[in-house]
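Task card 7
Instruction: Convert sequence to structure tokens.
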Amino acid sequence: MSNFSNASFEAGIDEAGRGSLAGPVTAAAVIFPKDYKNDYLNDSKRLSEKKRIELKQIIENDSIDFAVCSIAPSTIDKINILNSTFKAMHGALNSLKIIPDFIIVDGNKFKKFKNINHKCIIKGDSKYQNIAAASILAKTYRDLYMIEQHHRFPYFGWDKNKGYGTEFHINSIFKHGLTRLHRKSFTIKKSQIKLEL
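Output:
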């Protein structure tokens, strides 16, 4: 798991929260030194919450540069989740102090950023360190935000489900109604209940 390109400053990008019913979509961009290696870096979904928090600190210390950007549910409702994901990714890239000379993105879709060449990589978070690190930062920053919001809106179990469509969360929506952190453009039906994450 090294860099994809020979670029001096290759940024890896990933997002978190794309499929959730509440909260922002969050993207992170990470630039590591060229030959950086950390065997623990992997797709954030495969790591325990404790491990992700540990790695967050390591990534922030070891990276040449990193940035995180979140897009609010109200914007997601206005411009849709795909455009909001691109907006979050571009926001993270714009917040980097170092301008990357190549960008690698987890997944199969990306809107070109400035005139910088990029490559979309399916399951990139399990193949490249900088995407894995971006995946971890996006998820940890978003999870911490949703845990904070749980104290304001305690009925939905966001400290556990982080806004995703678990049975408990969906039942709570039908019982208590939507908050301003819910995505109004996402159709919420009892038949959509997903397995507990």
